[in-house]
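Researcher: Let's try something more involved. This one mixes different molecule types, so please make sure each is placed in the same coordinate frame as the others.
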Amino acid sequence: MSRWRYLAKRFLMAIPVLWLGTSMTWAIIFLGPINPATYVLGQTNPQNQAAVKAARERFGLGEPPLEHYTEFMINMVTLDLGQTWLLYPGTPVMSLIFDYAPRTVWLGFWSVLIAVFVGVPLGFYAGLNSNSVSDYATSLTGIVWRAMPNFWLAIMLLALLVKSETITQALFGIPISWDTFLVDINAITGNPQLSYMQGNPLALVTQPRETLAAIKKILPAAVVLGSASMGNEMRIGRTAVLETRSEQYIDTAKAKGVSGRVLVWKHILRNALIPLVPIVTSEAFLLIGGSVLVETVFGINGMGKLFFDAAIQGDLWLVATLMFIFIILIVGINIVQDLLYTLIDPRVGYERE
Amino acid sequence: MGTRETPQANAAGSDDPLLAVENLTTVFNTDKETIHAVDGVSFDVREGETVGVVGESGSGKSVTARSILGLVERPGVIESGSIRFRGDELTGDNWDRYRGDISIVFQDPINSMNPVYTVGNQIREALRIHQGLRGQDAREEAIRLLEEVGIPDARRRVGEYPHQFSGGMRQRAVIAMALACDPDLLVCDEPTTALDVTIQAQILELLDELQREEDLAILFITHDMGVIEDTADRVNVMYAGEVVERAPVDQLFDSPAHPYTRGLLASIPGQTAESDRLPTIGGEVPTPTAEPTDCRFADRCPEAFDACEQVHPDHVRIGSDHTAACLLHEDRYDRQLSASGAGDDTPAGDAAVDGGGQR
Ligand code: SF4
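Model: All components are placed in one shared frame. Result:
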């Protein structure tokens, strides 16, 4: 079937993208002006030419560019990610990533999920009830929500959660502390405890208490990170439903006697999902950038924070490796997008005559 | 003067025609004005016959079709009048009982089917709703329907998506889907306009065949007088939301009574052999925004006279089952041509009438 051939083609096309992205990363980072040797020598004696040279040698920076490039590419492709130089000297990058990535994945997962599961249904609801009071209310909330900047929202949310007892007391007459609500968490910010799932991913369901605590811990950060996406998805979802509703095949279906519920679920919503696919995936890209900020504010030791620290400290090797991982992620998300397209829209990959 | 007084009895033996539209008024309320897209339209369709509705774009014919199917949506609303199917009133949201009994084929086959489901899926959906068929039975029936509308290799194509069909094939599939509802009345809204001429002829032939085999009544809506001539038994000519002339097809082509009808006929290629140029009616259909106080065709009418600006013409009987809404046929008005009208008392459309007679 041509749909699946199309998907395979997209998969193959990812390879040159990966190569190009990684090469550019190498060029920008290693051909740039930053000299990590001076960081390493730091306080001692950066003027000592011999020491600088020795440090450069140690990092492999003395090699001719072509050799260095080849070595870098081979290392990346074979996932031989080496060791960090400065941040946690001597630690293999791979183990750092294994240590940091789960928290970011957890954060990204929930921020995408919350955005999709709140934004899309609200948008669809508004679109199905267009120009009603509830549509206006939803749309207005969505716009306001979307307009709030990440960092401001993060701070406000934290402020509210810290004062959760006082606020609920004033509103409902009962003090509910966010810290102890449903499950105890020791602090509002910080790392979610994910270690219980180590080597046993099923613990996600078998140990609901730990899962709940981990979700609760990540929730404020995930809401902040997903807020812009949520607003966008709502807006696009509303427009998509409105547009689909006026399509002629909807009239055909109505004339055919398709009942209201089937009309909405079968005929309108699936078509309305098509324009949402690129929105959701492109927002997944934003999350990679957004996680740097949000992880810093919420004190989560994730990939975003690691990248930030590595960049600040001039740990070029770690920066380059993380870039490579991000590129893989982005290419991967693109493939997921194509897969979703292929599943939802049969017209994908169809050559018009 | 209604057409229902005609002596022809319908097949069911009751006096009710299959579909009776009476004084239908469908308006669109915008912030600025109220557009009377359909304004007091009456006609009926009897079992097994083809009734044509013809007019330029903007004449309200498509809105008429949508009104009959209950597909008018905000800001549009059926303001008044009645639409009765088998004697039962449909306006006031009673369409659900007769869904499927009235099926529709739209102009644009590209958008008439949901792009994300297979053709078979959409036909089976209609079969399940209207004939209670499921599973393998529904599949077999869908294949049979596709074969009936002339789609080759139906067994394979039933699993294909609409975009894999060519335009003509897709329109056939749409017709198959309409047939799956087991309709008594098929509303065809410009079903061949988007197709090229050879395919158009094939689809018309198919509709003709189906009508004979299934004893379908067809309401055929088009801007194309040539198509009307080939398909319709009786014709309603619409202009600016109103029916301006209604007649059996032969009478309409032999002796059109309304200047607008004459204009339409004159603009069919081949009807005016002597002239090199194709005569067309100048100007555009006005958008009616208020109750009419004049003849809405007056601006473009080659025979307009003073009274046309002041009086809204009612239907006048021309022959049996033939009426026209034109003051020319009412004796009480002084037929003094206004300054802007043609200087000749001979109606310009006469040439067209003669041409029509020689066909
Ligand atoms: S009523 Fe007057 S303007 Fe209207 S069609 Fe007849 S002659 Fe023309």
